[in-house]
Amino acid sequence: MSINKPSDIAANLQIGPTSLGMVRIFVESDEVNLPLDFEPDEADEIAEELKAAAAQARAMAK
């Protein structure tokens, strides 16, 4: 699946700190439970990428 291909898959997304000092992104659907752990610096980079993508999407929607 690519970024531009629509999907009918529904999933829940949870983001929070773990007791080991990591940041966990947890994706849960009927088919999968996927915990993804990141160092705090990596999580900051992901947050920056999300904000940049949101800005680009806003610009494309205009």
Can you tag this structure with a few keywords?
62 residues, alpha+beta, 3-stranded antiparallel β-sheet, flat
Query: In total, how many domains does the architecture comprise?
Result: 1
Tally of strands = 3
Helix content: 25-40%
Number of helices: 1
Q: Quote the distance from N terminus to C terminus.
A: 26 Å
What is the C-alpha radius of gyration, as a whole number of Å?
Answer: 14 Å
pLDDT below 50 for ≥5 consecutive residues: which ranges?
A: none
Main sheet characteristics: 3 strands, antiparallel
* Broad structural category: alpha+beta
Spell the H/E element sequence.
Answer: EEEH
With strands numbered from the N-terminus, the spatial order across the biggest sheet is: 1-2-3
Shape: flat
Integer average pLDDT: 95
**Beta content:** 25-35%
Describe this structure in words.
With 62 residues, the protein is an alpha+beta fold. It has one domain (12-61). The chain is 35% helix and 29% strand. It contains one helix and three strands; from the N terminus they run βββα. The protein has one helix at 40-61; strands spanning 12-17, 23-28, 33-38. Strands 1-2-3 form a three-stranded antiparallel beta sheet. β2 (23-28) and β3 (33-38) form a beta hairpin. The protein is flat. The mean pLDDT is 95.
